[in-house]
Amino acid sequence: MSEIGKVQIQTDTGEVSVPVFQPGDSGSDIYEFLRVQTDSGTGFVPLTEVSGADLPSVRVHTQSHGTLAVTTSVSTSVLVESFEDDSTGGPTPAGWSTSLSSSDEKVVSGESVDGSRSYRLNNGTNNTIGHTRSAGVFTSAAVYSLDGSGYQPQTVTWSYNEQSFGQGGVGFWMLDSQGRISTATGTSNPNPVYSEGSGLIDVGGATGEYNRWSRYRMEIDWQNQTYSIFYGPAGSATEKVSQASFVDSASGVSSVAIGSFGSSMNGKFKCYIDDIKLL
User: Fold this and answer.
1) Hey, is 184 helix, strand or coil?
2) What contacts 10, CB < 8 A, 6 or more positions away?
């Protein structure tokens, strides 16, 4: 990520110099929409959640993401997927494979957490990923394969908007090259849950809602095979679980999956997925 200039911001304790970056695949849960003009072209001042910002007192109030704050660094990412560059209505977005029919999966406009597009998964037509097995079974609807194996991202985020007639919940999990699962988070009609390999566990103190953009953020400790879970409405995720265990003894990430897991209910669901980042 290239720095293309600086801007001066006046704070209560004095003036600070904040870097301006070239727009692109920023990391660390960074938002790029605060744009400024520099001698080298248009760039952005990075914004992030207040709890993780370098300048938490310099805040920006937004309509879709709540209150954010200015930070001074970005990081290189393993994967940033916002679907903004994919065509609406099909084909399947680049890098993804799916078991759903073309009518049940497509990039759409008008629903998004960080732009104008998101990935809609609608399993209501043919119920191709319906699951009637016991809790803890993972059934993917769409899979993104990374260019390589063994990545160990430190921070992972994903956002979703689950619609009210979803009956099986929606989940997001990561797999290594042997198919072993590390983190696994999702919903259960519609409250947030996660899996450690045997059934589902409530994300402590958190309540989910249908028809609302919500965000998961996971901070991962690969050495100890654990991760912290942050959850909440998009823009305001707070820590809910400090040391969730991996589902399997996974060595890294080769692919990520979206689908149904941990329910004996009908597998029908409709949801919008956006803002997937592996950093």
Assistant:
1) strand
2) none
Q: Which pTM was predicted?
A: 0.73
Do the bridges between strand 117-122 and strand 105-109 make them parallel or antiparallel, or are there none, so unpaired? antiparallel
| pLDDT score recorded for residue 200 | 84
Here the tokens at position 50 are 């207040």
- Go through 83-117 and write b for each residue having 16 or more CB atoms within 10 A of its CB, e for each that does not: beebeeeeebbeebebebeeebbbbbeeebbbeeb
Statement: residue 126 has pLDDT above 60: no
What distance in Å separates the CA atoms of residue 272 and residue 186, rounded to the nearest whole number?
Answer: 13
DSSP for 101-146 reads -TTTEEEEES--SSSSEEEEEETTTT-TT---S-TT-EEEEEEEE-
Domain residue extents for the chain:
3-75, 80-278
The neighbour count for residue 233, using CB atoms within 10 Å, is 16
Cα–Cα distance for residue pair 272/279, rounded to 1 Å:
22
CATH of 80-278, picked from 2.60.120.200, 3.60.15.10, 2.30.30.240, 1.10.10.10, is 2.60.120.200
Structure tokens at 177: 């090259």
- Which pLDDT tens digit goes with each residue over 191-216? 899 999 877 899 988 899 999 999 99
In 10 A of CB 164, how many CB atoms? 10
Distance CA 185, CA 200 (A): 9
- At 152, list the tokens: 């160990």
CA distances from 47 to 28, 65, 174, 245, 251 (A): 10, 11, 26, 30, 31
